[in-house]
Amino acid sequence: MHGGTIEAHSEGVDKGSEFVVHLPMLAESANAALEEAGDIPAAPLPRLILVVDDNHDSADSLAMVLRLSGHEVHTAYDGLDAVAAAARLQPDVILLDIGLPGLNGYDAGRRIREERGDKKLVLVALTGWGQSDDKSRSRAAGFDSHLIKPVDLTALGKMLAG
Q: What is the CATH number for 140?
C-alpha cells in the first residue's frame, strides 16, 4: 500500500533472523515534515499543545513538527480522549479536528471550554471542513481560529508565537 517491501533472512535454526523493512513513503513524509519544520519560527515561549485527530499519522506528524519547534506536544485520537487529555494536561493550545469519532470536534471543543472556564486556552479547529457554515459552527462552539488542512505551517507557527 505504501510502496514498501519486507525482506526476511536467516542462516538457520538458532542463528537469528534479520528483517528489513523499506517504507519509501514514510521516509519521504518524514523528510518533508523536517524540511517544513524549518519554516516554523521558534516560539518565544514553548507552548503545551494538544493535537487531536483521528488520523494517527496526521496527528503524530504534526506533533513531531511542533516538537522540533520546541513545544511540548501530546496527542489524542478522538473527541472523548481530547476532553480527558485537556482536563489532565491543561494545554495552552489545542489543535482539534472536527470530524472525530465518538464525540465530534465541535462538541469536544464546547466541553473543553466549559470545563476550563478560562480564556487562556487557544482552541483551534484544524480540519478539512472549510465552508463558511463550518467556520461559523466552530466559532459558535468556542474555537478561536479555524484552519484548513493541510495546515500552513508558517501561519501556524506565527499564530503560536503570537
A: 3.40.50.2300
